[in-house]
Amino acid sequence: MTEQQANIPVLARSGHSGHCTRCLTGLPFSLVTVDSSKLPLIFYCLGSLDLLGTLDTATKESERESWRNDIWGLHAGGAWGSGFKPSWYMTGSDTKNDPQRTYETEFDTPHMIVTYTALLTLAILRDDFARLDRRGLVTFLRSSQREDGSFTSDPTGGDADLRLTYCAFVICALLNDWSGVDVEKALGFVRRCRTYEGGYGSAPGCEAQGGPTYLAMAIFRLTSDSPNFLNAVERRQTLRWLLQNQDCSGGFRGRTNKDADACYCFWCGGAIQILGATELVDNVALASFLGNCQFRFGGIAKAPGEHADPYHTYLSLAAISIFPPSESAGGGSWAIEPLDTLINAKSSTAQWAKDHIPSKSM
Ligand SMILES: [Zn+2]
Q1: pLDDT at 88
Q2: Cα of 289 from ligand 1 centre, angstroms
Q3: Are 111 and 337 in contact, with CB atoms under 8 Å apart?
Q4: In terms of domain of life, where is this protein from (predicted)?
């Protein structure tokens, strides 16, 4: 799309900030049925405020302190190491006196995705990580890797797809310690997720999707000194598949023959950036699509006309950070804080985590 053709709506920064602030304060802690979804929701709300640069003005220090303490309330440990569990209501207190049922196996097991999310949310909140059990975290990673190289969501089982491998690798990167994982075995699992289209499925044999393709690119790059972690033929095929997912609306779709969806602007766009080909994306068309996904009362929806939610708001802002439209195309209101695409957090937040997570010698 040329700059003359572009008619980019203004990015409603204060509206999006307000949407995320409302979603944060509208989370009743008595809502037990969605208890395990609260932390991701908090992450997407706070992450959006972080990318917009409004976290300090939209929230109070007393609230941030309270959220930090809430998240540490999820810290759990046992025979399989330590990490963060999905829910405040998951407690082993009823089983502690039953010799047949150890509390770690029943309720208090750390969860890989929750642990990744908790670490990044604590970094957004500028926690000092003094309460982190570094050694327990490495044990948890080791306990969660399977024979085929994949990781399970917790040491007792559960899902085993690319999301878990990605979270395990980011945790290693934040710890600057890879001793808890068999990297080569894990990379073998990721390579088996590649499909004939050049994208990656969430597990071997699954259809190529934007999300797992981003995860695969990030996983490869986190352990590679060079951006050339795919051979030339593979790189061309993967890029071609990713780029043809930017459809005529300007947005990206997540799978062949699907409609564009705001979250895939990040999942596909992030993968393209990791492959070093940002110049091949039409930034103006992308901003035009995301501008039309803005909900009139704040927040960004998955598609024009849909209701907004923190997940699509955060990932849209992350995509805009990678592909900002030029000022001359009307993108003056679209400046977003720089993103660490591999970690999927604001660059200074990812750096905070790396700087403050206790070092190996402690
Ligand atoms: Zn979506």
Answers
A1: 78
A2: 13
A3: no
A4: Eukaryota
